[in-house]
Amino acid sequence: MAESPRLSPRTRADTARGGDPRRARRRLDPKVADRLARLNLAVNRAVEGFLGGRHRSPHTGVSVEFVERRPYVQGDDLRHLDWRAYARSDRLSIKRYEEETNLEATFVVDASNSMGYPPDGELTKYDYACQAAMALAHVVLRERDGAALALFDHTLGRMLAPSTSPGHLHVMGEALVERDPEGTTDLASVLGLLTERVRRPGIVVVFSDLFGDVSSLDQGLGFLRTRNHDVIVMHVMHGDELEFPFDRLTRFEGMEDDARLLVDAPALRESYKAVVTEWRNDVRRVCHRRGVDYKLLDTSKPLELALSSYLGTRLARLGRAR
Fold this sequence. Notes:
Number of domains: 2
Strand order of the largest sheet: 6-5-4-7-8-11
Low-confidence stretches: 9-18, 48-63
CATH architecture of the largest domain: 3-Layer(aba) Sandwich
Mean pLDDT: 81
Order of helices and strands: EHHHEHEEHEEHHEHEHEEHEH
Radius of gyration: 21 Å
Helix content: 25-40%
Structural class: alpha/beta
Largest sheet: 6 strands, mixed
């Protein structure tokens, strides 16, 4: 299998950031939300059998069965606080009901250093992944399903428990804004840890540039599939990484190691693109073999078009399979 390209080009000097542009670059774009208004994150049939009914009644009452408690997350509906449990333990918790457990989608965002490309203050791969995760979380929460968030580099970092509260979107957004890309990537380890944390079958959406050995991705996806999760891989790449547009002698620096390489970029372009194509083909084959959806997200393309096209195709495909 081909190895992923491990060097990212730096052709411009890093510039000091004025203010904090991260909030603007990582928030939910209203254009994207509007474009996805009539779509949903359809559930794979294999998972749906474990999840029960797809849609829930908006009503609550004695007919809704209490099933468990979970820790309180900022933004949760205060009406569901378990005050008796708080009196016993001095910890806030939320009562969960059967109608709340039909679907949980976990959005797993790669926050390793390579996701910080380009390093000059423009929209990065991490920014784009944040926007995509927020957009799909908005779709899930609009359907009154549960959305969860996990951030990772070489290990699993901050996790937000699933919530159906509309206010949870703001909490997720704050977590994404507060984190800046750092560290290396270890997909096998991270997805293995995630499998232990997210035990109930649901949808798991991974946003990553997938830097690393394809075998590590294969192993990690295998862990998730053993729990019967419906897994979607959103492969986030910058246009520079796909097209290699550099037209002069260019220095490349490793974003997750100390490697440096000075090359004649035009002379290298075709061989570089051939390696990237082979690597992406290996990634797609691994996803197909594991029964995992694969979607390339090119940061140079409008996000609303990429996501609406994917969701429409997924809905049509899974609808035909029923």
